[in-house]
Automatic annotation (TrEMBL):
Segments of skewed composition (Basic and acidic residues): 1-11
Classification via SUPFAM superfamilies: SpoIIaa-like (SSF52091)
Molecular function GO labels: anti-sigma factor antagonist activity
Residue segments, region Disordered: 1-25
Domain of life assignment: Bacteria
Segments traversing the membrane: none
Every STAS domain range: 21-128
PANTHER family, sorted: ANTI-SIGMA FACTOR ANTAGONIST TM_1081-RELATED, ANTI-SIGMA FACTOR ANTAGONIST TM_1081-RELATED-RELATED
Pfam annotation, one family: STAS
Organism ancestry: Bacteria, Bacillati, Actinomycetota, Actinomycetes, Kitasatosporales
Organism whose genome encodes this protein: Streptomyces xanthii
Protein name in UniProt: Anti-sigma factor antagonist
CDD domains: STAS_anti-anti-sigma_factors (cd07043)
Gene3D superfamilies recorded: STAS domain
Family, per entry: Belongs to the anti-sigma-factor antagonist family.
Length: 128
């Protein structure tokens, strides 16, 4: 948990020993969905880069990264998403981010990545 989340009056922080839930990967036709959960930060970048590299290099027309269950996204998370997007574009496919959280959408916008990550509010829209 990030600072500010309290349990029994103790502030908890996530450590390398508790990397958070693993991503869920689902194929759907010629697309793939990668569901990320929890905090997408430097620890997640280190843990998820090999997975997203493999998925982005795969045969999929669309790589949909679902951020619906994420609770935090920092510049490391943006790096992870941009890396996947560049790899899919290099082979003529695309990466789309599923996100409805206003703060995450604002971070993507302020970073100038709206066109690169093409955020959409639903998985259905991402897979079109």
């Amino acid at each position: 948990m990030r600072q500010g989340h309290r349990a029994d009056h103790l502030t908890l922080t996530r450590s390398a020993a508790d990397p958070g839930p693993p991503p869920v990967v689902r194929e759907t036709g010629d697309s793939v969905v990668v569901e990320l959960d929890g905090e997408i930060d430097i620890l997640a970048l280190q843990r998820m880069t090999p997975l997203l590299d493999t998925v982005a290099a795969g045969p999929y027309r669309v790589v949909a990264v679902d951020l619906t269950a994420t609770t935090f996204l920092d510049c490391s998370g943006l790096t992870l998403l941009v890396r996947a997007s560049r790899r899919t574009r290099a082979r003529g496919a695309r990466t789309t981010v599923v996100c409805r959280h206003p703060l995450t959408l604002r971070i993507i916008d302020v970073a100038g990545l709206t066109e690169t990550l093409t955020p959409v509010p639903t998985l259905h829209e991402a897979l079109r």
